């Protein structure tokens, strides 16, 4: 099942056409992503029983972030072996966790205004929680995932490592637009192997990141288990699972995003996001 946010309304995407959930369900479900997550088992059953209703064509520019109103957004640092290697850091024993604030969420296309400083890219697989999770075993981790989407953990590195100690991860990664998501939310059953997906990122046509999610140090089920063993996860919560090698600060020389560059991010089986980076002085 592929879910999209079309003009602020929850829709099913089938064969490149959109089925408005509220209309197709005769009001049994609203146009709210968050309501679908809160009633995830009921929603899955309804969607599975839905016949071929045709749907309608849509303009991709109308797509928003395919998420609800997350209570919690988790982000995992240093979670690809290749990324740990390029930074020269040891493989962590437990997940390195920080947060991004919800005001940073934006859709899969459009402009992103850059603050002053060194703005870096981080292509990421993002998991959306589908039911409340507490003390979940790794073996059952996928049972608590509503779907997967493409994300970017954009980061302003100057603030992130500002002295006296590099402690501003959350703020440096939460400027408006620094959590683009989309173009669709895809349920795990749609993938041959949801633990092994191709992921990549390019800047104005030049590929800078390319990997597979099998290189994750802590898989999605392991993250669900680890986090839910510390605090409850709620329907609609987001988990940014980390980025592979190829980020700007690890290059030699370092390289950061510039105004008018196009940032393209893709994950196999989900789709591609495209964003034009805009200098703050260009904002209308």
From TrEMBL:
Instruction: Specify the superkingdom.
Output: Bacteria
Domain (Fumarylacetoacetase-like C-terminal) spans: 73-277
A molecular function GO annotation:
metal ion binding
UniProt GO BP: carboxylic acid metabolic process
Q: Which UniProt keywords apply?
A: Metal-binding
Q: Which SUPFAM superfamilies match?
A: FAH
Short name of one Pfam family:
FAA_hydrolase
- Protein family (similarity comment): Belongs to the FAH family.
What is the protein name for this chain?
Answer: HpcE protein
Protein species of origin? Mycobacterium europaeum
């Amino acid at each position: 099942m592929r879910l999209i946010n079309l003009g602020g309304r929850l829709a099913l995407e089938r064969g490149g056409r959109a089925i408005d959930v509220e209309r197709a369900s005769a009001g049994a479900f609203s146009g709210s992503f968050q309501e679908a997550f809160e009633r995830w088992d009921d929603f899955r059953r309804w969607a599975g029983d839905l016949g071929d209703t045709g749907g309608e064509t849509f303009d991709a520019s109308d797509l928003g972030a395919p998420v609800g109103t997350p209570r919690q957004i988790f982000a995992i640092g240093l979670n690809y072996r290749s990324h740990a290697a390029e930074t020269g850091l040891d493989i962590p024993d437990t997940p390195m966790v920080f947060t991004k604030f919800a005001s940073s969420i934006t859709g899969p296309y459009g402009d992103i205004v850059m603050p002053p400083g060194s703005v870096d890219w981080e292509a990421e697989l993002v998991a959306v929680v589908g039911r409340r999770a507490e003390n979940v075993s790794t073996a059952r981790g996928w049972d608590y995932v509503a779907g997967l989407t493409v994300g970017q953990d954009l980061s302003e590195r100057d603030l992130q490592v500002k002295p006296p100690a590099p402690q501003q991860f959350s703020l440096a990664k939460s400027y408006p637009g620094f959590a683009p998501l989309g173009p669709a939310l895809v349920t795990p059953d749609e993938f041959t192997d949801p633990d092994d997906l191709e992921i990549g990122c390019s800047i104005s046509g030049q590929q800078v990141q390319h990997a597979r999610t099998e290189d994750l140090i802590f898989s999605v089920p392991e993250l669900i288990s680890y986090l839910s063993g510390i605090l409850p996860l709620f329907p609609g919560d987001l988990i940014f699972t980390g980025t592979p090698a190829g980020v700007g600060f690890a290059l030699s020389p370092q390289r950061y995003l510039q105004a008018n560059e196009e940032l393209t991010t893709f994950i196999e089986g989900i789709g591609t996001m495209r964003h034009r980076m805009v200098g703050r002085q260009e904002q209308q």
